Fold this sequence. Notes:
The structure holds two protein chains of two kinds.
Chain A: H1 2-7, H2 9-25, E1 30-43, E2 49-55, E3 64-73, E4 79-87, E5 92-94, E6 100-101, E7 104-109, E8 123-125, E9 131-133, E10 141-146, E11 155-164
Antiparallel strand pairs in A: 1-2, 1-3, 3-11, 4-10, 5-11, 6-11, 7-10, 8-9
Chain B: H1 5-18, E1 33-36, E2 39-44, E3 47-48, E4 52-53, E5 57-60, E6 63-65, E7 67-71, E8 77-79, E9 91-98, E10 104-112, E11 135-138, E12 144-145, E13 151-154, E14 159-165, E15 179-189, E16 210-212, E17 228-237, E18 242-252, E19 268-277, E20 283-291, H2 293-296, E21 300-302, E22 308-309, E23 314-318, E24 323-331, E25 340-350
Parallel strand pairs in B: 6-16, 8-17
Antiparallel strand pairs in B: 1-5, 2-3, 2-4, 7-9, 9-14, 10-13, 10-15, 11-12, 11-14, 15-17, 18-19, 19-25, 20-24, 21-25, 22-25, 23-24
Amino acid sequence: xxxxxxxxxxxxxxxxxxxxxxxxxxxxxxxxxxxxxxxxxxxxxxxxxxxxxxxxxxxxxxxxxxxxxxxxxxxxxxxxxxxxxxxxxxxxxxxxxxxxxxxxxxxxxxxxxxxxxxxxxxxxxxxxxxxxxxxxxxxxxxxxxxxxxxxxxxxxxxxxxxxxx
Amino acid sequence: xxxxxxxxxxxxxxxxxxxxxxxxxxxxxxxxxxxxxxxxxxxxxxxxxxxxxxxxxxxxxxxxxxxxxxxxxxxxxxxxxxxxxxxxxxxxxxxxxxxxxxxxxxxxxxxxxxxxxxxxxxxxxxxxxxxxxxxxxxxxxxxxxxxxxxxxxxxxxxxxxxxxxxxxxxxxxxxxxxxxxxxxxxxxxxxxxxxxxxxxxxxxxxxxxxxxxxxxxxxxxxxxxxxxxxxxxxxxxxxxxxxxxxxxxxxxxxxxxxxxxxxxxxxxxxxxxxxxxxxxxxxxxxxxxxxxxxxxxxxxxxxxxxxxxxxxxxxxxxxxxxxxxxxxxxxxxxxxxxxxxxxxxxxxxxx
Lengths: 165, 351
């Protein structure tokens, strides 16, 4: 229970961490890098469509975008309770079943990161006061909980896809 | 420009909620920077460490140039020959919509298609309708000649209504079923009036490049992704084709009554005027006039009040000119095999 409450801290402490970032930057053993790519469909030799990842250069509404974040433990000790939180970027919509991450438990939020769950548990309150099951379009945040310790020099990455509105 | 920003966003998000594969209309504004940051929290040896936020990964949304021209009617617009340009039914309506993600200028070209039967609003035509060249308006603005190529500026997701009006000729070579097709072509242009072109240089992640995304239209726009789109609508001339037949039959004579009457002095003769319509359009407002030369010659006498005009609105007999007139006649549409029919009858007495 204690872990859980800690895990929801990042959002509330985000501002704080930004303010303090320079102070921690030197000491922080974990390096985190975010990247953005476009996913296009190309036809292979057999004429079948295949996904191809290209640089996010020419992007117009309706295009698929791949966001990936890699994290590395540069420290000398193992890190545990590693949790990565990523808001769905503005002007984009999450594509269902595209959040990936090895050894990760992936949950979603529909209320800006207050409550977490998946498609089966998340509900959205409608105008008429009734609740309906949340869909990918409702998600505001994605969270990856790395379910093992991140050993020194170990590197891992997570990703998700959105469509540009 | 025409739409308030909020309703668009609302409709997009609503569509996104309802349909997993929603269409994107104009979509996110060109030049918008989409940013992503991830935050990681962790512990070392049980001690919670300060969360770390990744550097921002971002890209700039490029400019999608997309447009659609849509004629309001897929079916032919039925018009009457010899009608003025201002006739309500002679108007073709097209809607140009800016489906791109930024404000865009569009040049409008309105042309006659060469593959139809005639060009509305052109050529020498006989009275009563002198030719009036076609004109078009954009959003009800000033009338433009067909030779004009005005430019209209549309905000993202905004539309413009283009109305084309033509007079219809009155000439022997233009008859029932003849077609005149009008093509409206819109071309996305820049501020200098130059057609928009796809960026050919290698993409720059942090600059706005141009991507053409339009579909193929009519033959004036024979390719997709060329910054153009067009549509056509067609006028179809509809002429009622009428035939008039007059017959007479004797109703009674003073000796035989109504049993096998003969045309002798004192006999009552009924004239039947039949108007047949073999076209597929209703003929309305017809007037039938019959001058009784036999009455003028003193051979017969019109029987007052005997005109029956069941398909019309009025009937008179003018004794001074011996003229029977039936007005306001409507003849229903028909075919060559089964014409639409209207009948007028009146009776005379043989003197």
